[in-house]
Write a structure and sequence with these properties.
It comes from Microlunatus ginsengisoli. The chain is built from 19 helices and 17 strands. 34% of the residues lie in helices and 18% in strands. The strands form 4 sheets. Strands 6-7-8-3-9-10 form a 6-stranded mixed β-sheet, with helices on both faces. A 4-stranded antiparallel β-sheet has the order 2-1-4-5, covered by helices on one side. The chain has a 4-stranded mixed β-sheet with strand order 11-12-13-14, with no helix packed on it. The two termini are 28 Å apart. The chain folds into 2 domains: 300 residues, P-loop containing nucleotide triphosphate hydrolases (Rossmann fold, 3-Layer(aba) Sandwich); 150 residues, Roll (CBS-domain), CATH 3.10.580. β9 and β10 form a beta hairpin. The structure holds adenosine-5'-triphosphate and magnesium ion. Adenosine-5'-triphosphate binds next to α1.
């Protein structure tokens, strides 16, 4: 586990980027830092692989202060996915992925086979391996960034807005792929995002930061939705949290009803909703009562054994007859139907169960108070009959917008473009001269003093820097 102990970071110009941050990042889990632009997320991440040093406080990794670990060693144990991708443009995909193994001196055949294996792992076709980053889509580039960070099988993954530069559909796919990969790999992950939905979806633990790098609240996603600590968190998780909280409630308890089913659309009549099934009892569509024999498309389906109430509600809301159709995922067979009203009644029950018996205060009181016009979460969920992201972007506060939207219309963020320094560090090596890499506390600056020639480094193309870095890595470590 990684422990932040009263960590603060003040830049030389006096900017308080991070203030008194204390947090435990558990091993093998995903901790997401979320917060508005400029709230210190990247700064926090860069202190974990010692690209930056805290001004005060300390970070301890598995019982050992980071300062007592060599930077180069540390960075090779921590994969880093840079904000906005940061692939080396003049290196092929395979060469990009193989960067760290190359620096570690693996032999070429082993690097190639490891890089190919990683292409598979991140779901990219092997033939993309010979392409250059510019010949890939944004989503593919982000996968390559993840593959590169995984290349030397690091213990820790530091991911700075790894899925921000893609549209919501691709982002959704990347989320699924990422969660699947994490189920296999169980890395200790710190992931940064602007997007509260992404944080809630991916995080085992979510830490909400406010500007100045102050921790507003940390906890499991459900806890933040149900018990926001203050008005800032309430505002940040948004008025849709009643709806979002449904993501944590299983649909298994909903009582399913039944409708008339037919296997042949013709002659089904037009009395009430009629569901068309195929020969294997898999739902095909609803019979259109207005046009005999015509079949209306299915809404989304849900499986009560594995899905959440949110999926069930989506299913009801996308159904042309207002009924969610439940199927068994294994067999695809129809098992029953339920209306949006019945699903929401289930939510009311689940919420009632959260009431705190000792104080008599409903646990859901905080979320309720912040819904529009004092609506209960159930009412809010009823009112929110569209998925969260369909709220027009410009009606949402900047904090709630996906990063790519936020960026388009606001002051460019300091780290919008990956710097060459970051790119080099993503390869697991130090951009700073190695002599600054002593394990002792004296060697580590307490303020962010740039290394000699840092300005030059910032301007250098990533490749050039990498080569300089490779040379440095070949030299014996200066003690
Ligand atoms: N080298 C620096 N010198 C001075 N101030 C800096 C420096 N780097 C960052 N800052 C400031 O520190 C604060 C935190 O920056 P940081 O990059 O950590 O924010 P962030 O949360 O990652 O933002 P974004 O979401 O836009 O990426 C900002 O006010 C930023 O302007
Ligand atoms: Mg940032």
């Amino acid at each position: 586990m990684i422990e932040f102990e009263s960590v603060s970071k003040t830049y030389r110009d006096g900017t308080h980027a991070v203030s008194d941050l204390s947090l435990v990042v558990p091993s093998g889990k995903i901790t997401v830092f979320v917060g508005p632009s400029g709230c210190g997320k990247t700064t926090t991440l860069r202190m974990v692989n010692r690209m930056l040093e805290p001004s005060s406080g300390r970070i301890v990794w598995d019982g050992e202060p980071l300062k007592s670990r060599r930077r180069t060693t540390l960075r090779r144990q921590m994969g880093y996915v840079i904000q906005s991708g940061g692939l080396f443009p003049h290196r092929t995909v395979l060469e990009n992925i193989g960067t760290v193994p190359g620096l570690l001196g693996w032999d070429k055949t082993k690097i190639r086979s490891r890089s190919r294996e990683l292409l598979d792992a991140v779901g990219l076709d092997r033939k993309l391996g010979e392409r250059y980053p510019a010949q890939l889509s944004g989503g593919q580039q982000q996968r390559v960034g993840v593959a590169r960070a995984l290349a030397a099988d690091p213990l820790v993954m530091l991911m700075d807005e790894p899925f921000s530069a893609v549209d919501p559909v691709v982002r959704g796919e990347l989320h699924e792929f990422f969660l699947g990969l994490q189920r296999q790999l169980s890395k200790t992950i710190i992931l940064i995002t602007h997007d509260i939905d992404e944080a809630i979806k991916l995080g085992d633990q979510v830490a909400i930061l406010r500007v100045g790098g102050r921790l507003a609240q940390a906890g499991a996603p459900q806890e933040l939705l149900e018990r926001p600590a203050d008005a800032f968190v309430e505002g940040f998780v948004g008025k849709d949290r009643g709806y979002r909280a449904l993501s944590f409630m299983p649909a298994s308890a909903v009582e399913l009803g039944s409708v008339r089913v037919v296997r042949d659309a013709s002659g089904a009549g037009n009395e009430g909703p009629v569901l068309l099934l195929d020969g294997d009892a898999a739902p095909q569509g609803w019979i259109d009562p207005a046009r005999g024999g015509h079949v209306l498309r299915m809404g989304a389906l849900f499986d009560p054994q594995v899905d959440t109430l949110r999926v069930a509600l989506d299913s009801a809301l996308t159904s042309p007859v207002g009924l969610a159709v439940a199927v068994s995922r294994d067999t695809g067979r129809y098992v029953g139907v339920v209306s949006a009203d019945d699903i929401l009644a289930q939510v009311t029950e689940a919420r009632a169960a959260l009431d705190d018996p000792t104080t008599g205060t409903p646990a859901a009181a905080a979320p309720e108070g912040a819904t529009p016009a004092g609506a209960t979460p159930v009412e809010a969920a009823q009112a929110d009959d569209a998925p969260v992201d369909e709220t027009p972007a410009d009606e949402r506060p900047a904090d709630e917008r996906p990063a790519d939207e936020t960026r388009a219309d606001e002051t460019p963020a300091v780290h919008d473009t990956a710097t060459a320094e970051e790119a080099a560090n993503s390869t697991g090596t130090a951009a700073e001269p190695l002599e600054g890499d002593g394990p002792s506390d004296e060697a580590a600056p307490t303020t962010d003093v740039p290394p000699e020639g840092a300005d030059e480094v910032e301007r250098a193309p990533a490749d050039q820097l990498l080569e300089a870095d490779e040379r440095a890595a070949d030299e014996p470590d200066a003690r």
